[in-house]
Amino acid sequence: MQDGKAVAGKLVYGLGCIAAAVILAVSAAAYYGTHAVNNLGTSPNLSSGPSTGPMNILIMGLESRTYWDGTSVDHHIATILHTGMAVSNNGGNAANTLILLHVFAGGQQAVGFSIPRDAYVPMVGTLGFGASPSKVDNAYGYAMAQQMANDRTAHPHWTSAHDNIDGNYAGQNAEIQTVQALTGVTINKFVELNLVGYYEMAKVFGGIQACVFPWPGGNTPTGHIAKDQNLTDPVTRGPGGAYGSGSVVVPGIQHLTPEQALAFVRNRHTLPGGDAGRTYRQQAVFDYVLNNLKAGGVLSDVGKLSSLLSSAKQYVQFPRNWDLVQFGGEISGLTPSNIALTTLPTTGSTTAPHDVGAVSTVSIPAIQRIVGQAFSAPPPSRTAQSAPAARGSAASAVKAPAQAAPTALPAAKVTVDVINNGAPQGTARTVLAALAARGYTAGTAGDPPAGTPAQSLTTVSYGAGAAVNAAAIAKYFGPDTGLTPTTSLAAGRVLVTLGVATQAVPAPLAGSAPASSAPASSAPASSAPASSAPAPAPGTSRSAAASASGAAPALTPQEKQWAAEAKAKYGIPCVY
Fold first, then answer.
1. Candidates 3.30.565.10, 3.40.50.1240, 3.40.630.190, 3.40.1440.10; correct CATH number of 4-206+274-374?
2. Would you state the pLDDT for residue 528?
3. More exposed terminus of the chain, fewer Cβ within 10 Å: N or C?
């Protein structure tokens, strides 16, 4: 399991990418009008719905070393990536980074979960390719491959670029549906990032500034790192290809060329913390980019702004019609102290069939409890509480007329049907039996018509008079269960359609809801995650304070000077 610091770094990096897109959108609007803003978001997925308010956002980091249109990186970048002679080694299309973020109403608090990429879960929306359970990050590539195959048959005159873009859209949709099924919540928006984006950004800026502390030597959370070992990551080649980023840095503040910047953010092999250390390097680069966007004159340089907007389309995707100006204004006050972060738990490991390989097992009901509790509204903060209405004001003088609350029908007068549209075989019958045990009249249990695509979340629809009963039934299946009135059902009738999110009879419905609550890490986002490690020195990255014992390596006077100068001049932390 990833530690909290790694998750925090990844999430803050993801938020940084969103913030950069917001800044770009605002600046583009100033120069080019709203058309440039709308063109930044191109995906049809999750393109409807409000741009602000309580929102679940999926942040995806794609492993692919191609652009969205399928164009492979050129030989120069392939060389930088050290794919060697295998230029066709495009890294696959797995969503190796998956972070589910909930922004509470008002945009001032958030809670996020990193989803283990090897979590073994049911695939949803993969269009029949890889229908068996697999690693959660495979849903993207499975759907993309199948959609491209379908397009080549249905649209033989389409270009390869058209096929690839359409395939990416299918991959996004499948990853969203699969994560919805795993977590039991509806995803409202997404942001997708591509590996090559760092290089493209660094080119626009003419390189980046970085500040690096030399590792003093010693044990780390991922093993022993020798003195100064973090300064280099040599490339070694073997039968399986190249290994290592080729990063070479020196202690202190330095300028990195675009090529060096890409190697800098790819290194994880020789860093304290491994992936966590790499995350903080990535965050430091983005801090530099954000600082330059705001204060470095890039936004007043039409040529650089145009280049940055152009490259943004190559490395970030999000839904069209998402008003980033509105969203950015709402989350402008969101700070790390108001974000609660953790990693979703795994239950073990095994080897999966169908060449999936080593996977992490998970308890879907447990994950849905954790996420559902964490995403519930946090207690209002003092600043969010409204003052009582003044005596004699309109608010206190006028009262809305009381309305009679709808009443529930006796359970025996409500007939419930259950359709299985994604749950394991037989679940519809067992769910119907559990509802009958609660006093409802059992209708039918069955499967949808052949060929109907599986749905990720469970839904409940109802006929006239059954609104209260249907709402009570929906609660058994989690907070994001869809609830819809319909005239196609007779009065007093309720239809439950099971999605992949329902893997068994829900514990509350079965009458065996576990007594244990979600771990402290899923507490409301109004408080920061607890940590027993001391706070890092001012101007340093949290990764600089990480060690196996939890004690921060003492900074030398020289390192303190670097940290202060890096923060003051470039707005960046010093990292290992």
1. 3.40.630.190
2. 32
3. N
